[in-house]
Design goal:
The chain is mainly α and about 425 residues long. The protein folds into two domains: about 10-275, no CATH class; about 280-425, no CATH class. It has helices at about 10-15, 25-35, 50-65, 80-90, 110-125, 130, 135-160, 180-195, 200-205, 210-220, 225-230, 235-240, 280-290, 345-360, 370-390, 405-410, 415-425; strands at about 45, 45-50, 70-75, 75, 245, 260, 270, 275, 290-295, 300, 305, 310, 325-330, 335, 340, 395-400, 400-405. A three-stranded antiparallel beta sheet has the order 12-16-17. The N and C termini lie far apart (about 45 Å).
Length: about 425
């Protein structure tokens, strides 16, 4: 079996690269990521398609290629492996029988579970000459187009002047005030898009956006997922171009008939008053919200139910970090049915945050003295607590009913080994557990 080799790079990386001070991911994790198939997306009849493990394997591959582009796995450089994964969704020569293609559908909202990662991967690839040079001019143009589409979706869903309750399919219900897993993915998208182009260039693109011309570019690139998503509801064209009001469709279970309004995408982007020139501030707001609770294990949902560990790994009845700050938001939040405490939703917040956080670290944009050190301390508690509860198994409450979830059945299939690998490599380890 061919193995991962860094011998050609040790001297150069140690002295020349801007990310030289950072550690590198474990060899076995990189190899696993490279050997995992590239992700694909599709948009068919409002059905969202996600390939979670494949998506986070793409993130790990992009990071490894950025740090050590000429290192080998299975006889090929990491740069070549990444270029191949990117090419797989940048180019779909022929539509699939259901009419779909392979690129992210740029829907906004919950699409950000997986859409931020290709944005991060393209940003890292553009900053890695050994990768970028392997993409043809057409493939690079497709990368630009995809990043613009993802950025437009972020603008529509997140901008301070837009308050829509619908995504760009004109049907799926969403609001930017909802739980982190609805929001932080496309915050990651807009951060990477602003760095991929530049804040001023991206804002200029927004200001001169023309829906019909952009749809024509999508058609030329055979980006049918995005085109079909954005043109499914004819009202989206006018909302993106000029803003206006739209009602949640009557057939929706949540908020049917609710009106929402906005100004569209033809102006510079801001979120909570923060601009594209403030990528760190944009991320910091999301991260502080995510790792925001005092750690607890038994959360009383109602008089007859409290969350608890399932003792699948030990006889413990509480987290070793009980009482420490940093527990993930969705271990103690609400949903449409009342209180929620969920291992799965907590992980979903972490799986979106860590790729963005790591990308900022690699690019030298993590600001320790401006909140980054605090976030790392909270993250160290939150991630350790999450892993402990996952390995023990966690009985929670979501959408008005009991849920039982654990590491093997629920988190690992969604790429938890890749996500925890990012945390363990680039961020602070867990603090000492509190004494009973």
């Amino acid at each position: 079996m061919k193995t991962f080799c860094l011998s050609l790079l040790l001297g150069l990386v140690a002295t020349a690269a801007p990310h030289a001070a950072l550690p590198t991911l474990p060899t076995e994790l990189i190899t696993l990521a490279v050997r995992t198939a590239p992700p694909r997306w599709k948009f068919v009849d409002l059905q969202r398609s996600r390939e979670m493990r494949e998506t986070f394997a793409l993130q790990v591959t992009a990071i490894a290629a950025y740090q050590s582009p000429t290192a080998l796995v299975d006889g090929q450089s990491l740069a070549s492996h990444l270029a191949k994964k990117l090419r797989s969704f940048l180019v779909t020569p022929t539509r699939y029988p259901d009419g779909s293609t392979r690129e992210p559908e740029a829907q906004g909202g919950l699409g950000g579970w997986t859409h931020a990662v290709p944005a991060h991967a393209l940003l890292l690839a553009k900053n890695t000459p050994a990768v970028w040079s392997q993409l043809s001019a057409t493939e690079q143009a497709h990368a630009d187009l995809l990043m613009q589409a993802l950025a437009l979706a972020a603008h529509f869903c997140l901008d301070d002047d837009n308050d829509y309750y619908l995504l760009l399919d004109g049907a799926s219900v969403y609001h930017k005030s909802w739980n982190p897993n609805h929001v932080e993915g496309y915050v990651g998208v807009i951060i990477s898009a602003s760095l991929y182009f530049s804040p001023d260039e991206l804002n200029d693109f927004f200001s001169h956006f023309d829906f019909d011309a952009f749809i024509a570019r999508l058609e030329a690139a055979n980006f049918q997922n995005i085109k079909r998503c954005w043109t499914r509801n004819p009202a989206i064209r006018g909302l993106m171009m000029h803003g206006g009001t739209i009602a949640v469709p009557a057939e929706q279970t949540l908020a049917p008939g609710v009106l929402s309004t906005g100004t569209g995408v033809r102006h510079p982007f801001t979120l909570n008053g923060q601009t594209l020139h403030e990528p760190w501030a944009l991320h910091r707001t999301q991260a502080l919200r995510l790792f925001s609770h005092i750690t607890r294990t038994q959360i009383e949902v109602n008089p007859t139910f409290s969350s608890q560990l399932l003792n699948q790994a030990s006889a413990a009845t509480r987290s070793p970090w009980e009482g420490q700050m940093g527990m993930l938001h969705e271990f103690e939040t609400t949903d449409w049915r009342g209180l929620r405490t969920s291992l799965g939703y907590a992980y979903e917040g972490a799986m979106i945050d860590l790729p963005t956080a790591t990308t900022l670290k690699l690019l030298g944009l993590w600001q320790g003295s401006a909140g980054g050190d605090l976030i790392e301390r909270r993250m160290s508690v939150g991630m350790a607590d999450l892993r402990f509860k996952a390995q023990a198994g966690y009985r929670g409450w979501s959408m008005g009913k009991i849920t039982e979830q654990n590491w093997t059945n629920n988190l690992l299939p969604m790429g938890a080994d890749f996500i925890f690998g990012l945390w363990e490599t680039y961020f602070l380890p867990p603090p000492p557990a509190l004494q009973p």
